[in-house]
């Protein structure tokens, strides 16, 4: 595999809280994914631009960290088919003190993050996020590397990691329906990878390794 060096836009985003609802759990405790799924990244990009960002508009990779995971009590309203409602309390899981390192191509997206059109969110409307830094970095595709705090496609073997089916893209028009999803490894500890996949890149300055969605 020939080494390719490219320029990417790197945006560092932080939020006090983040939550990425796991749709298979609808009662008891509302669980969160430990990392934003690709569909959330598309939503973040669309909010910054002020228009829908499609899958063929951008390439991106990301690294996500949080300090703690905990539970909150939340009041909900339950409606029946006649419009009658009652209140209830359920527990909702959320992540605290989060940071997202987002790598993007094309780099022209920097103008949207310098002045986002809509508020940036890491999950729900209460999970308000803000941009810390915006810069251009160099990266290269890799055969070997150490991946941590990111996701890896299911066809790559890793030593340690949790398996999740994550939504990749959700239809923008109402009713919003899932268009694409896939199985990924979530790795929050260092994992060595060896691959011929040209979608794995490493930032030259920090050594961060990540998979680029394209």
Structure notes:
It contains 2 helices and 12 strands, in the order E-E-H-E-E-H-E-E-E-E-E-E-E-E. With 214 residues, the chain is mainly β. The protein has one domain: Alpha-Beta Plaits (2-Layer Sandwich), CATH 3.30.70.
**Helical proportion, percent range:** under 10%
> Would you tell me which CATH topology applies?
Alpha-Beta Plaits
User: What's the architecture, going by CATH?
Assistant: 2-Layer Sandwich
Please give the largest β-sheet: 7 strands, mixed
* Total of DSSP H or I helical runs spanning 4+ residues: 2
- Along the chain, the helix and strand elements come as EEHEEHEEEEEEEE
- Show unreliable segments: none
Query: What is the number of strand segments?
Result: 12
User: Radius of gyration, Cα only, in angstroms?
Assistant: 18 Å
Oligomeric state of this protein: single chain
| CATH classification, class level | Alpha Beta
Domain module tally: 1
Strand residues, percent: over 45%
- Shape verdict: globular
Task: Estimate the mean pLDDT confidence.
Answer: 90
Classification by helices and strands: mainly beta
**Terminal Cα span:** 18 Å
List its salient traits:
214 residues, mainly beta, Alpha-Beta Plaits, seven-stranded mixed β-sheet, three-stranded antiparallel β-sheet, 2 helices, 51% strand
Produce a short descriptive summary:
This protein has 214 residues and is mainly β. The chain has helices at residues 38-49, 110-114; strands at 5-18, 29-30, 59-79, 85-105, 129-141, 144-147, 150-153, 162-170, 178-187, 191-194, 200-203, 209-211.
Topology (elements, then pairings):
Blueprint lengths: L4 E14 L10 E2 L7 H12 L9 E21 L5 E21 L4 H5 L14 E13 L2 E4 L2 E4 L8 E9 L7 E10 L3 E4 L5 E4 L5 E3 L3
Parallel strand pairs: 2-4
Antiparallel strand pairs: 1-4, 1-5, 3-4, 5-11, 6-10, 7-9, 8-9, 11-12
């Amino acid at each position: 595999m020939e080494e390719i060096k490219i320029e990417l836009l790197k945006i560092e985003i932080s939020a006090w809280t983040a939550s990425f609802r796991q749709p298979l759990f609808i009662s008891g405790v509302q669980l969160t994914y430990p990392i934003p799924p690709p569909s959330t990244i598309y939503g973040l990009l669309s909010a910054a631009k002020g228009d829908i960002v499609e899958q063929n508009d951008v390439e991106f990779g990301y690294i996500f960290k949080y300090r703690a995971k905990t539970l909150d009590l939340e009041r909900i309203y339950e409606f029946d088919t006649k419009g009658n409602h009652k209140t209830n309390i359920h527990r909702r899981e959320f992540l605290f003190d989060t940071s997202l390192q987002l790598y993007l191509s094309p780099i022209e997206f920097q103008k949207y993050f310098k002045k986002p059109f809509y508020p940036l969110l890491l999950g729900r409307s209460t999970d308000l996020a803000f941009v810390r830094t915006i810069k251009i970095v160099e990266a290269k595709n890799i055969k070997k590397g150490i991946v941590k705090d990111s996701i890896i496609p299911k066809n790559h073997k890793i030593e340690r990691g949790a398996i999740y089916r994550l939504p990749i893209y959700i239809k923008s028009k109402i009713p919003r329906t899932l268009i694409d999803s896939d199985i990924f490894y979530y790795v929050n500890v260092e994992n060595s990878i060896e691959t011929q996949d040209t979608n794995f890149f490493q930032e030259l300055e920090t050594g961060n390794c990540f998979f680029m969605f394209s």
